[in-house]
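chain below, 115 aa
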Amino acid sequence: MPASGPAADFDALLPWSIVTFTGNRILQLSDAFAYLISQDGAGQTVTIPPNFDVAFDAGTQISFKQGGTGVITFAPGAGVTIESRGSLVASNDQDAVASIVQDSADIWSLFGDLV
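prediction:
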């Protein structure tokens, strides 16, 4: 018998999807609870869109790995705030991992191996 209630909600999140990408990227709803692996030799920008364009739920997490040599820079869309220790918003080096979590509409926490 399938799980119901909170257990079903939790099960729906597992396993996370793994998505590879090259080039710049604007996040979309299908990226929620995904592990995005860049495979680019050039720098890339990942833009977090405003909640009125892409309505992520509070608590949404998206993780990233710099799989190529190109640094991932995280950029806020219009009205979006990215909060991170030291205001760092770029992946450190190849194989660096970082995650973002939506604290509330248009407020995101960024953490991980950043510079």
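Residues 6-112 form a domain with the Jelly Rolls fold (CATH 2.60.120). The helical segments are 6-12.
thats it, cya
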